[in-house]
Amino acid sequence: MKKIFLAVLVLGPMSYGQNAQRKDTAGTKQLDDIVVTASRGASLRREVPVAISKISQKSINETKATTVSEIINKAPGVLMVNLGNEQHMMAIRQPMNTNAYYLYLEDGLPIRPMGIFNHNALLEINQFNLQNIEVVKGPVSSLYGPEAVGGAINLISLKPSLEPELKLGIQADGFGYKRFQAAGGTTIGKLGFYVAGLSSLQKDSWMTFSDYNKDNINARVDYAISPRTRLTSTLFYGKYYSDMTGSVNESDFYNRTYKSTTDFTYRKSDALRSKITLEQDWNEKAHTSFTVFTRNNKLGQNPSYGIRWTPGQTTAKGEINSNNFKSYGVIGQHNQSFRFWQSTLVAGGLFDYSPVDYNAYQIDLKANLNPGGQTVSSYEIIAERPDIKLADYEARIYNKAGFVQLSCKPLQEVTLTAGARYDDMSLDYTNTIDQSSGDKKYDQFTFKWGANYNPLDFAGFYGNYSQGFSPPGLTSVFRAKPGTGGNTGNPAAFYYNLEPAKFDNYEVGGWLHFLQHKLSIEYSLYYMEGENELLNIRQPDNSTDYQSAGKTRHKGIEFALQYCMNEQWKFRIGGTTAQHTFVDFRVSDKPSDPIRDLNGFEMPSAPKWTGNSELNYYPKWLPDFRASIECQMTSSWFEDQVNTVKYNGYTVFNTRMGYRWKGIECYVNVMNLTDKLYAYNVTKGNTATAAPSYTAAAPRTFVFGLQYSLSLKNKAKIL
C-alpha cells in the first residue's frame, strides 16, 4: 500500500497524470498503470475488478484529433458516434443512442448534474488540455452515481509543469476546417499554473450548411500551502455555435450530393465551469479532499432532429428550444489505509443544487418534396409559433449522495472490493403549460462487489457484480406527448410517470502477458439486464413517444491485444461483440398494428461487432518520424425497432504521419483513406413507408498541422 499512497501523495485522489514503473512506449494501456476512475483514488489496474481502458498522453498527442471521438474510439468496447462538428452520441454496452446512460467526467467531476444529461457534453472539451483519458465500461453508479450505466469517461487535464513550457499549434483540412491552439505553464516556488486554449472554425465543408466555430480556454492554478496541504483551482469557459445539417435521405447519400434539407437549424452553447479543491495529507495513511464547484450552461437550438414530417405532406413542424442551468455544489472525500489486509477505505458525500429553466415552441415549416413525395428536398420556415409551447418549465434540482468503498487483500494474490452509494435526486417544478407545480423524487441505493485474482506474473482474473440506474431526464418528463397540447385540440399530457431505469451487471475478465510483456491480452465478458429503460418510440411524423416499461438484455465480450514486436513496430487491436435485445417491451395497444410488442427483437442501432486496430511504425533509420495506419470497423445493425431493414455497417482506414525536428513537428492525417462511402448512423421509422435517414461520414480528408513545443527543462522538444 505504500506504493499506492505515494501515488496519492503526488496526485491527490482527484488529480491525475502519472504512471507506474513501466514506460508506455506505444501509447497503450499497461496493467502497471495507476488509474483513479475505478476507485476514486490511485490503484493499480490489476487490482480493480472492472474493465477500464487508459488512453495515454502519447497516444493523444500522436492522434492529433480534430474530434474527441478519434481518441476515445481507440478504447476497446467503445464506439463514440460522430454526428458532425464535434457533436456525438455513444455506444458502450448499449446500442448507439443519446440516452442518459453515460457519465462524462472532467478530472473526476461530472460535467453535467444529474437530471440534465446532454449526449453532446464532450463537444466542450479542449483536446489540447488532455493528460490522458480513462474509460470505465459497465455501471459505476456505486461511486459516481446515476447515468454511469454503460460506462464513465474521465477526461484528465494537464497539470502545471515544473519548468516553463509552451505549445503552439495550427491545424487545417481540405474542407475548410482550421484550428489554432496554444498552451503553457510553469511552477514558481509553491505556485504552479497551466493555461490551454483553442479556436476552431469550419467554413464551406463537403456537407452543405455545416459551418461551426468553437472557442475554449482552460486554466489551472496549483498552490502548495505546505508539504501536506495543497490547493487547486480550475476554470473552463467555452463558446460553441454550429449549423445543424441533420441527416440526408437515401438518394442524396448514395449520390454523394451531401445536401442538407435545412439552412436554418443550429446548436449553440455557452459553458462556464470552475472548482477549487483543498487536499490534506494527515499522515501516510489518511488523505482528505474537499471541492467546491460551479457550473453555468446556456444551450440554444433549432434542432434538425426536432423536425416532424409525415410522408407525402407539404407542411412540417419544427421547434426552437433553450435549456439553461446553473450549479452550486460541494463534494468531500476521505481515503484511509489500514495495515490489516492492506485495506483501503474511500468515503465521501456530494451536494449539488442546480436551478434549470427550459422552453420549446413550435415553428411551422414548408416541405419541398422530391419526386414521388416520399422524401424532402428542403424545408423553409413559414412562421415561428411561440404561442404553441412544446415545453416550458422551471425546476430546482437537489442532488444529495453518500458513497463508501472498501478494498482489501486477504491474500497477496487476491484483492476484494465492495462499494455502495445512496443517491437522492429531488426537485420542485413549475410547468407553465398545464399550470401545475409540485415536486418529484428519484432515489436509489446502488451496490457493487468484485474480486481480483493474480496468481501468476503473467495472468490474472477478475469478477464483479454492479448495479446502475438512471432517472429520466427533465426534458423527457416535461415534454408534451405527441398529439397533445398546442393546436391539437387535446389537453397537454406529460411524462410525469416515467420511472428510473435500473440495471444489474455481471462480469468476468482477465489479462495475459507473454514474451516478456511484449504481447498483452485483456478480455471481459458481461451480462447486463435493464428494467424500465427509457426508450424512444418513433412516430410516423418523426416525433418521439417515451416509454420506461419493459426489460432489455445486453451481453457481450470485449477484448484487446497489444503486441510490441520491437522498438520500431507496435500493434494493437481491440473491440467487442455484443447483443442488445428487447426482452419485454410493448410499443402499441392498437389491434390494427402488425407489431405490438418487441419481445425477442434486436434493439436498433446495435451492431454486433465493433473494433479499432492500429499499426505504429517508429523507424530507427529516421528518428523522430512516426507513421500509423488505423482501421475502424462497425458491423451491420437494424435501422428500425421492428427489425425489417439493416444497414451494412462500415470498415474505414485512417493513416497518420508526423516528423519532429527540434521543437517543431509537422504532420498529416488522412481520414477515410480509401474514400469509402459510409454513414455513422442510419435510422428508420417503424412504418412500411418510412424512409431511412443517413448521418453521412466525410469523404477522404487530408488534415495538415504544425506544432511548436518548447520546454526549458533541457532544450526545445515535442511533448
From TrEMBL:
Residues 223-673 form the TonB-dependent receptor-like beta-barrel domain. The lineage of its organism: Bacteria, Pseudomonadati, Bacteroidota, Flavobacteriia, Flavobacteriales. Pfam families: Plug (PF07715), TonB_dep_Rec_b-barrel (PF00593). Keywords: Cell outer membrane, Ion transport, Iron, Iron transport, Membrane, Receptor, TonB box, Transmembrane, Transmembrane beta strand, Transport. Its main location: membrane. It is a multi-pass membrane protein. One of its GO terms (cellular component) is cell outer membrane. This is TonB-dependent receptor.
